[in-house]
Amino acid sequence: MARLHTPRWAWVLTGSGHFFVESFSLIHELEYCDIFVSKAAAEVLRMYRLKLDFPDTMRVLHDKTASAVPVGGFYRGVYHTVVVAPATSNTVAKCVLGISDTLATNVFAQAGKCRVPSIVFACDTAPELETMAPDGMVKVYPRRIDLENTERLKDFERTTVVESLADLENAIRGRRAELESHG
């Protein structure tokens, strides 16, 4: 088995369809990345007919253990950055409350505990949104609590909350530049 290149990106896919395909495509632009696939994300992958076909420099880790075993890499310095994109309102709410009972929320919690910066692409960022569903565009109306949780998450240490695909791309580009300057 080849030696694992560290440090790596950790990309968490949750069960949101909001810019899922576009977020999924961004993963391919990262050289060394582990993709954490929540149970809900696995369902979304099937709905959008996407395959987990990545280069050898990437690993795909599925939500198959009760204690989220794959997060142990945070304690060994495997990851330099976490990206949660797209992040459902459920994932955001659990992160805000400190609940880490899924692979996605465990990754976010362990990143925080290990002082690993996180970029979160929150889905519920405006009172009215248009988003792509498997069958086409739909309008959604996030609840006040969803919007409030997104705002609360912005106050978390080492957490950048982005509200658009362009913001996500810029945050990743900015983090890359930061890593290269320290490289």
Key terms:
24% strand; six-stranded parallel beta sheet; alpha/beta; Rossmann fold; 6 helices; 36% helix; 183 residues; 8 strands; two-stranded antiparallel sheet
Structure characterization notes:
The mean pLDDT is 88. The protein is 36% helix and 24% strand. The chain starts with 7 loop residues before the first strand and ends with a helix. The chain is globular and about 40 Å long. It has six helices and eight strands. The protein has one domain (8-182): Rossmann fold (3-Layer(aba) Sandwich), CATH 3.40.50. The strands form two sheets. The protein has a six-stranded parallel sheet, with helices on both faces. A two-stranded antiparallel sheet has the order 6-7.
Topology overview:
Elements: E1 8-13, H1 20-27, E2 33-37, H2 39-47, E3 58-62, E4 79-87, H3 89-97, H4 103-113, E5 118-122, E6 129-133, E7 136-140, H5 144-153, E8 159-162, H6 165-182
Helix pairs in contact: 3-4, 3-5
